[in-house]
């Protein structure tokens, strides 16, 4: 039967490995080799240029602006999203009292929070464009209605507010999913541990900080990595929502947009591949750093 | 390292062998381009605002002339995405309408040797009259628009003129006349503002729209010398007096408060709808706007295009000069299976019969001479035809946008800042000049001259 076992294993593993190899590994490998060429995307030939594409990146104003903006997003998006999601899911599971009860109607909230996750990014971009419309847009209208008319502005056309405006949409659309994720994790925290803490006189906040958070830390860690990758992207929202796109004055340029423009507008596929490879290593490094920085001792619940 | 270099400089993908031997048929009076008998034809078209009626119409003509051929006609929105792999692998279709946001970079295609020289088509007898060559049927500038480094590689079908748009009925009811100088424009703007309407709005999300009147003013002031200096990336081209004066003229709209508030954040649809709703009097745009706004324009709005006013009394070009160029680029791939058929298809397409149908169905100006004669034109298209008529030889166009897209991106960014009032004309020109100098110094960018 031993042979039969290996045949089964190979038979089961080969198709997914093959698919992964053809559709994931080989494009990656191709991107790495294209990054060393001056391929224009149209001719069958490409000249080898060594590392000069990578050297050019550091003198490219747009790429540097993109790095800066993605840097801002990576600082803000994961932290803000996780903080909000933790707050909401704590309300859903602990908010109603020290025992494990959520605030009234938490079942409904759970569904409502998930709604943004169901909309495609393209629809989000278009919707929020209306929210930010200058003059009579939803946001300006709201500010005017509550007597904050002085804050009204052309949100996406002002370099100071454009990037935060896009970032806010990103956070808004991501929070719901992580609320669901964290709520599920919090509900798996054993009741007796919480009750013991409550008997010892712990308040809701202490229970959250000392019991819940350490026990859902694994989920937070995963969330941080996913959100970091999300923050390094942002292409679709920027492409749809912003002035230019990528503006005003390159205020919302992101690496994905610079890459796309280099490849499909300027026909510099080799250079664009170099950007892709750089982005790949940035993502890899940040993921490793994030996992290391958030590493804590695992709590074993027997 | 040498080994790696050899591998890398080889083929990017499979295929890409030398162009196949060209299939040719007998050249006769009926078949001046020597289309092989019974050879099939594959036509791939951009399916955009002009529709597909006219490209289908040309298919019908082709089939009448070559009854044995099977013609496949396909309309696409993203021409580039679909055709790029086919070009790379050496199996492109026989004719392509390379247009739309997802089009392929024609200059790159030409440089990669992927395009057929169209000279033979241009010198072939036209379908309308065998005594007239195809070349002589086209409006001035059309062949030049499709010429790269001395070789005609593509032909554009639609003629676009840029100007300033207004509502005839609104202007009549208020007693306003379209200004012919920029001083008059600024004076009228004051009057319009007093009437409670914003004098101007523009498509702020895409600053290119406002760059058109700006560079038109500059071209009028400095003449074609200024235009060529810009396109040829000459030193200080963006600091020429005419260019600075034009930027200053446009900037006066900002400092005078003549632009609908928040325009810098409006998409083209939002701005154009605001204009159609009477929130603003003037709007810069190309001649496609009438078709684009068809569903939104109120009854009796009567949109019309006026030439951009003269910048000063000492302009090099007359008031009536307009920025015009052709678009909808048709080309024949060099590695096509039936390139003779591709040329023949274009001979059918660029005939008076198909062009008249285009003017009627697409509500746009075809590049074929006299195609709109005797047709009843809509308000906007009639004004465009009149403007082109008045301009005569005074039609100019810039090339930097197609030749150097890197520069165009910086021009648009700087223009957006100028119109938002965050930079002044001096900073605007310095910024663009720096970008132009960088492109001029970059060896990896192919250079063109005119």
Describe it for me?
- The complex is a heterodimer of chains A (302) and B (450).
- Chain A is an all-alpha fold and 302 residues long.
- Helix content of chain A is 70%, strand content 0%.
- The mean pLDDT of chain A is 89.
- Helix content of chain B is 42%, strand content 14%.
- Chain B contains 18 helices and twelve strands.
- In chain B, strand 4 (147-148) and strand 5 form a beta hairpin.
- In chain B, helix 2 crosses helix 13.
- Chain B is globular.
- Chains A and B meet through loops of A and helix 1, helix 3, helix 4 and helix 17 of B.
- Chain A: Keywords: Cell membrane, Membrane, Transmembrane, Transmembrane helix, Transport.
- Chain A: Belongs to the binding-protein-dependent transport system permease family.
- Chain A: The chain crosses the membrane at residues 72-95, 107-132, 163-185, 269-291.
- Chain A: Pfam families: BPD_transp_1.
């Amino acid at each position: 039967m031993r042979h039969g076992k290996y045949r089964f294993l190979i038979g089961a593993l080969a198709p997914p490995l093959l698919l992964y190899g053809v559709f994931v590994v080989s494009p990656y490998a191709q991107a790495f080799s294209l990054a060393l060429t001056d391929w224009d995307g149209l001719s069958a030939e490409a000249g080898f240029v060594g590392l000069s594409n990578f050297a050019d990146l550091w003198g490219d104003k747009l790429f540097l602006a993109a790095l800066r903006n993605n840097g801002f997003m990576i600082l803000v998006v994961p932290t803000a999203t996780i903080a909000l999601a933790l707050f909401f899911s704590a309300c859903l599971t602990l908010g109603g009292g020290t025992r494990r009860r959520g605030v009234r109607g938490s079942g409904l909230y759970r569904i409502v929070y998930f709604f943004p996750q169901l909309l495609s990014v393209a629809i989000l971009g278009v919707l929020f464009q209306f929210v930010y419309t200058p003059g009579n847009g939803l946001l300006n209208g709201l500010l005017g209605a509550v007597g904050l008319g002085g804050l009204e502005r052309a949100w996406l056309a002002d370099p100071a507010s454009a990037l935060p405006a896009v970032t806010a949409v990103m956070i808004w659309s991501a929070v719901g999913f992580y609320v669901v994720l964290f709520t599920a994790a919090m509900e798996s925290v054993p009741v007796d541990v919480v009750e013991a803490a409550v008997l010892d006189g712990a308040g809701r906040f202490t229970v959250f900080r000392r019991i819940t958070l350490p026990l859902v830390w694994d989920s937070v860690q995963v969330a941080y990595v996913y959100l970091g990758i999300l923050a390094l992207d942002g292409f679709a929202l920027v492409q749809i929502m912003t002035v230019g796109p990528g503006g005003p004055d390159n205020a919302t340029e992101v690496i994905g947009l610079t890459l796309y423009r280099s490849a499909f507008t300027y026909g510099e596929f080799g250079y664009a591949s170099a950007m892709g490879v750089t982005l790949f290593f940035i993502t890899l490094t940040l993921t490793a750093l994030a996992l290391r920085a958030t590493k804590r001792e695992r709590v074993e619940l027997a | 390292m040498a080994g790696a270099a050899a591998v890398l400089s080889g083929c990017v993908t499979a295929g890409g062998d030398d162009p196949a031997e060209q299939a040719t048929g007998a050249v006769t009076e009926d078949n001046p381009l020597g289309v092989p008998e019974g050879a099939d034809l594959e036509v791939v078209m951009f399916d955009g605002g002009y529709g597909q009626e006219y490209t289908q119409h040309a298919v019908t003509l082709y089939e009448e002339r070559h009854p044995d051929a099977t013609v496949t006609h396909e309309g696409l929105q993203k021409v580039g995405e679909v055709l790029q792999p086919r070009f790379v692998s050496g199996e492109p279709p026989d004719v392509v309408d390379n247009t739309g946001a997802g089009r392929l970079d024609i200059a790159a295609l030409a440089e990669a040797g992927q395009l057929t020289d169209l000279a033979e088509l241009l010198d072939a007898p036209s379908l309308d009259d065998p005594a007239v060559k195809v070349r002589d049927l086209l409006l001035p500038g059309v062949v030049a628009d499709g010429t790269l480094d001395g070789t005609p590689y593509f032909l554009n079908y639609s003629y676009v003129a840029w100007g300033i748009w207004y509502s005839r009925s609104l202007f009549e009811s208020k007693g306003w006349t379209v200004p012919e100088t920029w001083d008059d424009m600024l004076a009228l703007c004051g009057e319009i503002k007093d009437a409670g309407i914003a004098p101007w709005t523009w498509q702020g999300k895409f600053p290119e729209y406002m760059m058109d009147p700006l560079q038109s003013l500059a071209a009028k002031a400095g003449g074609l010398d200024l235009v060529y200096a810009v396109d040829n990336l000459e030193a200080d081209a963006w600091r020429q007096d005419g260019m600075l004066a034009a930027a200053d003229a446009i900037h006066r709209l900002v400092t005078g408060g003549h632009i609908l508030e928040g325009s810098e954040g409006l998409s083209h649809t939002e701005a154009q709808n605001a204009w159609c709703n009477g929130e603003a009097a003037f709007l810069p745009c190309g001649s496609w706007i009438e078709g684009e706004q068809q569903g939104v324009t109120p009854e009796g709005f009567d949109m019309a295009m006026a030439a951009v006013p003269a910048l000063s009394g000492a302009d090099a070009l007359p008031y009536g000069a307009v920025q015009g160029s052709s678009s909808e680029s048709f080309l024949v791939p060099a590695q096509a299976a039936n390139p003779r058929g591709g040329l023949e298809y274009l001979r059918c397409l660029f005939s008076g019969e198909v062009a008249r149908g285009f003017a009627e169905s697409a509500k746009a100006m075809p590049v074929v001479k006299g195609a709109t004669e005797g047709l009843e034109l809509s308000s906007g298209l009639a004004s465009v035809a009149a403007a082109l008529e008045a301009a005569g030889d005074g039609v100019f166009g810039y090339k930097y946008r197609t030749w150097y897209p890197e520069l165009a991106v910086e021009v648009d960014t700087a223009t957006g800042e100028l119109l938002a009032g965050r930079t002044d004309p001096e900073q605007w020109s310095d910024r663009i000049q720096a970008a132009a100098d960088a492109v001029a110094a970059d060896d990896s960018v192919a250079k063109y001259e005119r």
